[in-house]
Amino acid sequence: MKTLIVYASVHHQNTEKAAKVIAAELEADLVSVGHVQPGALTVYDLIGFGSGIYGGKFHQATLHFVETLQPLRKKRPLYSLPAV
Q: Which CATH number is 19's domain given?
C-alpha cells in the first residue's frame, strides 16, 4: 500500500519528529503541507495528516490544504471520523 503523510510542524518541530517515526515504520513518503501538490495525491492508497493542535484545531495550513482538496475518484476512505 503506497502511503503518504502530510504534516505541519512549527515551533519545536515535534510533529515532524513524530511524523518521521511513523513514516519510517509504514515505509511512507513524508511531505510538509507547504510542499505537497494536490494532484500528486492520486498515486497514494493511504494519506495521513499530522499537525500540532492550536486552539483545539489542526494548524491553519493543514486545514486550508484539506479544505481545498477535490474528492479523489475511485478511492474510498478506510474509515471516517464523526462530525464535530
A: 3.40.50.360
pTM of the complete model: 0.79
Domain containing 32 equals 3-68
Question: Mind giving me the DSSP string for 35-59?
Answer: G--GGGGGG-SEEEEEE-EETTEE-
Distance CA 21, CA 76 (A): 26
Measure Cα distances from 58 to 9, 14, 26, 28, 82 in Å. 10, 14, 22, 21, 16
Task: Decide if 36 contacts 8 (C-beta within 8 A).
Answer: no
For the stretch 22-49, pLDDT in tens is 999 999 999 999 999 888 888 998 899 9
Q: One-letter amino acid identity for 66?
A: V
